[in-house]
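so im writing up the methods section and need the tRNA threonylcarbamoyl adenosine modification protein YeaZ record in one place, dumping it here so i stop losing it
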Amino acid sequence: MLVLAIDTATTDLVTGLVDTNTQQTWENTLHSSRHHNEALVPCVQELLRSAHTSFEHLGAIVVGCGPGPFTGLRVGMATAQAFGDALDIPVHGVCTHDAIAQAARHAHPHAQRLLVCTDARRRETYWASYQGPARLEGPGVIKPDALDCTSYDLISIPEAMREKFDVPNSTQIIEQPPTPRALIEIVDLGSTPAPLVPLYLRRPDAVEPSSKPLSRAIPAEFREQSR
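--- predicted struct ---
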């Protein structure tokens, strides 16, 4: 089965195809992208062309559900759901940090205790901790200097954030994005997908403006009707 993987929860725009029969993988990832909304569909189209296939050959879709920023998650999850609805194929949601941990285990198989951190903005980090394949804690959001980093063999931190963490010299630090292979490996493709639920963990940056009194120049009867 040919499976499309999408993740827009981090600054990396991840798209990939995995043939679950042969394990052949095609990947099209934009690193440090701030234009997920404009780039996602063209990336998927380019990916399909590079694999010499098309949308109608897809059997399932896997999408990262965060944690991540409101806009980034909305772009990836809404696009994945739209593809799934149009093609009438299942769409599976996964925790992005679980996929990062899985990819880190492939690259560093001897690491036992793993901490995954991504940029939450507002001088905070999204985090989750792992023992082997099991997630122990998280995902959560916290100030980097409030996170205990002393008990881990391996920590994935975006390079731009590293100076904000207090990491022991004995701990290896990497920057591991989610990969298509990892996104697909952590989901049971034979199961019935649950509804997609974004892991926002906090309210979006945008807030509804507070109401203001109407101008007294507006006739009283119209002011009453607007209440």
